[in-house]
Amino acid sequence: MPSVNEWLTFSEWGSKWGGLSSVTLLGQPIIIVNSAAAMEQLDSRGSVFSARPRLPMAGELVGYDQTLVLVPSGPRFRVFRKHFAKLIGTRGVVSQFIPLVEDEARRFLKRLLLKPGADRISAHVRKLTGAIILRITYGIEVEEEEDPFVTLIEKANDNFNAATVPGAFLVDVFPAMLYIPEFLAPFKRTARVWAQATKAMVEAPYLHVRSQMATGTAPVSFVSSLLESEKALSEEDVRDIKCTASSLYGGGADTTAASLYAFFLAMVLFPDVQRKAQAEIDAVVGGTRLPVHSDHEKLPYVAAVVTELLRWHAVLPLGVAHAATEDSLVDGYTIPKGATIVANLWNMLNDPETYPSPSTFDPTRHLTHPPQRDPRRTCFGFGRRVCPGQELAEVSLFTSVAMTLAAFDIARVAGPLPVHEYTQGTMSHPKPFHCLLKPREHAVALISAEV
């Protein structure tokens, strides 16, 4: 099994052996899905392929089996999904958060204006996405300097990325290793530290809301609204509210941040795309205001930039592994009960037969008639584990991209062009790169006035 850039090796396997490949890792069958057609067959049988494999490291030891991403299928999973559906499950319910997203995007522009250094862009992006999630979930407004709750997200997500890589920890293959004493099992010492970060991510912002509610100062949020009838809630209900909130908080911030950071890289590498998008924005707002989400229909090219962004940089190159709950036939092959399913989303989003010249950032591929395959059908997962926050993610990305293009030119620095490379882990950001941010005409006045 490859240990780095696994999606590239799996893609090579797909070229040799087709849409499905099978490997056995110390007795555990792992099915690699390289084609969108095969993934759609899995998607159509969500009840069979929507379980998660047992991952003792990330699950029992680190605690992510208490959050939506790894919680086993069953009653708790349905409770989590129900909470998500009511909060952000449709475009209609997400619309209530558009003013909040626009407000945080303006603050993001101000941070870029005041501290435009290339080494700051990633931090600004993370603060933006964390701020949106924190306000929706807990009513928390982030601090302008280092925010303790954003730091909690980043620590916990870094741990999740490392703990869920297939084959990274032998305990995931040999669960009996759970019973080895810690002094003989270094992975347990690592897990103990990571588990503390997971607990902090779940408890700290929840307790903050409880404290504000006790003093009557809690803003309306997902958590405060559900706790209003706390006397009628059981211990299990409160536990599920905490874990649903941390799932939104942990899962929504890092994925959107990775996409938005990739946007800056794409604009450096493909300046013609930037100029075309800015011309469309200027024709709509005329430099008199910043674009907002209600301009979406008038900005089809900018919307296509966001769609292409989701394709061009696969935030979850291999998704999160699924498991088969019964024997099933896919593409003429039997996938056995208990097999781990790894969907190579990177390969599907870079398939040259579906997306010609896939390494090129080309928004026009999503404006053709009929359009090429919508990458959102791939990048947001499949089955009953499809990302429940995709509507909020798209609103956040469109708003942030449109406002940034209206306010700044994103240019290359002297020297070689940066390279589009992925960080390692389940959730992948572009590797750090350098660029220049130059305020456009009227940008300073617009940002200052609107903030």
Automatic annotation (TrEMBL):
Pathway: Secondary metabolite biosynthesis. Gene3D superfamilies: Cytochrome P450. Coiled coil: none annotated. It comes from the Eukaryota. Pfam families: p450. Heme binds at residue 387. Its cofactor is heme. One of its GO terms (molecular function) is heme binding. Keywords: Heme, Iron, Metal-binding, Monooxygenase, Oxidoreductase. This is Cytochrome P450.
